[in-house]
Amino acid sequence: MHNHFIFPLLIGSCLLSGSAMAAESSQDFSLAPGPLAQTLIAIGQLSGRQVLFIPSDVSGYQAHAVQGRLSAADAVRMALRGNNLSLRETASGALNVQPVVSDALTLDATSINANGNTDDSQSSGYVAHRSSVGTKTRTELVKIPQSVSVVTRDELNDRKSDNLSDALKYTPGFSSQPSGFSRTADDYTLRGFNVGSGTGGILRDGMKLQSNPYDGSVDAYGLERVEVLKGASSVLYGQLSPGGMINTVSKRPTDTPLHEIGVEVGNYDRRQYTVDLGGPLDDQGQFSYRLTGLWRDSGTQVDHIGDDRRYIAPALTWKPDEDTSLTVLASHQDTYTGFAPPMSYGMSTYSSTPGYRIGRDQFVGEPGYDHFNNRMDTLGYLFEHQFNEHLSINHSLRYFQANTDWDYLIPQAISGTRLLRRYSAREERSTGWTTDNNLNFTFEQGRWQHDLLVGVDYYHKTYDSHRYISSTVAQLAPSLNLANPQYTGVGANTAADSGSDLHSTQAGMYLQDQITFDDKWVLLLGGRQDWADSVTTTFASGARAGRTDQKATGRVGLVYLADNGLAPYVSYSQSFQPASVSNPAFGNAFAPLEGEQYEAGLRYQPPGSDTLLSAAVYRLDQDNALSLDAATNTYVQYGKTRSKGVELEAKSNLTDNLQLSAGYAYTDTHVLQDQTASNVGKRIEGVPYNSASLWASYRLAALGLPAVKVAGGARYTGTTRTTPSAYDGKIPAYTLVDALISYDVDSHWQVQAKAQNLMDKKYLYCNTTCRYGDERSLIGSVTYRW
C-alpha cells in the first residue's frame, strides 16, 4: 500500500504500543457533525489511537455527532453511522476505515448499539441488512426466500412515529385504520388479510404479544425497529393469519453511554415528554442498562376524546463472558383515550342519501361516559449462549397482562335529525405466557454448509371479556340531535353480559435447515407440528365449549446469490389459524383456517452501495374460511379467499446525507367461495388495488447547512370497497403528505418540526364499517443528548 494513500493519525509524539491498545480506556467525546475526515482526525488526536484511512475513500462523507464516554473504536463507529464505510482493527491495533465491500452485507463493524442478541437491531440509516424474523437465525435479507420489510430506528426517528400504525404506513402491502382506532388497538392487514393482535400476528422480540385486539396498542418510541414478514409463516411462529406477522424489537441496553430527553408540543394541546437512557453499569462491561419513558397529554380532532399515554420500559443486560448474554426486559403502559365508534357508510358525509350525517369532527358519544382506559404490562428475558463456533442456544420467556375498561355509544341509525345510539360497556382482562427455545447448529460437508435450527415454543393466553351491548330498541341510549347537539347524559345500560372467558394454549415443535452450496445457492427447508387447545365459557348461558386442533405446516425456498448483487428466489409456505367462533350445532368442531403461499422475488444490492431493492409476486390462498349462513344465522365453514399481488420496495442510504424509502403494492383480494352466492367474486373490504409511498430525508450539507435536515413523503391509497349491502360504490382514493425539518443546534441540542397530512386531506376509511381519516397534525420538538 503506497504511503501517499495512507493517512495515519497520531496523538502526542509516538504511536501507542500493542499492549496499550489492548488496555484502551474510554474518553469523553463531544464532536459535532461535520466532514468525516476531520472527525476521524479529531478522534485520533483525543484518544491516542492510530486511525488509518484513504482520503479519497472518505471524501464527501459527513460524520455523525460523536458524544459520550467512548473508546476510540466506538467513537469511530458512531461517526460512521449511515455511511458506506466499515471499521477494521489491524494486527498492530490500528483502526482502519475502509469502504464496505460488496459481499459485506452485515455492516457489523459499523454497529455501535447493542448487547447480546441485538445484531438484528444494528442498522445505520434506512437500510437493514440482516433480520432474524424470517428464519429465527441472524440471516442476511438477501438469503431469505420470502418478503421481509424492516423499518429501522433511524427511519422511525425521521418520521417520529407515535404508534405502530404510524411506523408501518410506508410499508408496501400494509394497511391500517386511522389513529382514532389505532390509538386503542393494533389491527392491521398485510396482503389483504388481517394480521392484528387478535390473530396473534403482533410479536415482541420474536414472541407473541397481545391476547386480543383491544389489549392496547404498541408505542413506537419503545422500539429499536419493526420487522414485517409477509405471507404464510406458521412454520416458525405457529398460529398466524396467512397475511404474515409483525415483529416489534424492544430497545435494548447499550455498550456505549446514551442519554436523551425530549419535549414535544403540538396542535390539539399536545404535550409529550420522553427520556431514553442507556449505557454500561461497570468498568468490566458485564452489566448495561436501558431506561425508556414517555408521558403524553393531548387532545384529538374530536372534542372530549384525549390521547394520553404513560410508558416506561427498563432493561438490564448481563454478559458474564463474550459467549453468554441475559437481557431482562419489562414495560408498563397506561392509555387514556376514546374509542372512535364505527359507522355505516350511509351515516358519513360521503353518502349521497339526503338527510343529516355525522360530521367529521363530531363527538357522538356522551362526555363522562365514553372512554378507553388500558393498562398493559410485560416482564420477560432473552438468554443466549454460544457453546462454540458451531453450536448456540436461545431461550426467551415473557409474561403479559392487560386490563381494559371502555365504554362508548355506537351509532345505530339516523331518524330525521336524531342519531339513535346503542350502549357498549366492556371490561376485559388478558394474560399471556410465551416462551421460545431453540438450538442452532452450523456445520460443513464439503461444498455444503448447513445452518440447522431445532426448537419448541409455547403460548398460553386467557381473555376474560364482559360485554354489555344494547341489542333491542328498549335498551337504546338517549338519542342525539345532529342539528343541535346537546349532551344530556346516559341512562342505565340494561343489556345482558354477552361476553366470554377464553383459555387457550399452543405448543409447537419446529425444524429448519438453511443449506448453502458453493456460497451461491441457499435452500431453506422447514417443518412444524402444532397442538392447540382452547376452552370458552359463555357468561350468558354458562356453556363451556372446547376445541382441540393439530396441524403440520411446511416451508421450502431457494435463493441464488449472483456476483453482481442480484438474489432471485422462489418459495412455498403454509399457515394455520384455529377458528375463533363456536359451532354449537356441530360440537364446535370447525377445522383451522389454512393458508398457503407461492412467491417469487428478486432482491438487488448494487455492489459498493448501501441500497437494497426488493420485488415480489405472490399468490396467497386461505381455505376453510367461515361464512355466515343468512338462513340459520350461524357460521358454516364454506369459504375460500385468494390474494394475488406485486410488491416493490427500495431502501437506500444513497449518500451520507440522503436516505430514501419507497414502496408500491398491487393487491387483488377476492372471495372465491362463500355460503352466500352474492359474495363470490367480491373484493375484500378496505383493501386497495393500488397503494404507493415515497419518503426521503436530506441533510443540506451541499448547501453549507450540515446541521439542517429536511424530510418529506407521500402515501397513496387507491379506491376500496365497504360492505356491498351498505354501499356498492367505491370509497375514494386519497394521497397524504408528511414532512419534517430538523436543526442540530450543536452536538447536544436538536429542534424539529413535523407535520402529518400536511395538506389536511379529507378522506374516509372503510372496511365493513367506516371512520373518518386523521386531520393535519403539527408537532414541534426539542431534544437534548449528552
Write structural notes for this entry:
With 786 residues, this protein is mainly beta. The protein has two domains: 3-99, 3-Layer(bab) Sandwich (Phage tail protein beta-alpha-beta fold), CATH 3.55.50; 258-469 and 502-785, Maltoporin, Chain A (Beta Barrel), CATH 2.40.170.20. Helices cover 6% and strands 51% of the residues. It contains eight helices and 44 strands. The protein has a 22-stranded antiparallel barrel. Strand 38 and strand 39 (705-717) form a beta hairpin. The two termini are 39 Å apart.
Radius of gyration: 27 Å
Largest sheet: 22 strands, antiparallel, barrel
Low-confidence stretches: 1-23, 101-122
Estimate the global geometry from the Cα principal axes: globular
Termini, distance in Å? 39 Å
CATH class of the largest domain: Mainly Beta
Count of beta strands? 44
Could you outline the blueprint of secondary structure elements for this entry?
Elements: H1 18-22, E1 27-31, E2 34-35, H2 36-47, E3 51-52, H3 55-58, E4 62-63, E5 66-70, H4 72-80, E6 85-89, E7 95-99, E8 130-131, E9 139-140, E10 148-151, H5 153-159, H6 164-168, E11 174-176, H7 179-182, E12 188-190, E13 193-194, E14 202-204, E15 207-208, E16 223-230, H8 234-237, E17 244-250, E18 258-266, E19 270-280, E20 287-297, E21 307-321, E22 324-337, E23 371-386, E24 391-415, E25 418-445, E26 448-469, E27 477-481, E28 500-517, E29 521-538, E30 544-560, E31 566-577, E32 593-604, E33 611-623, E34 626-629, E35 634-637, E36 640-653, E37 658-673, E38 690-700, E39 705-717, E40 734-744, E41 749-756, E42 764-766, E43 770-772, E44 777-785
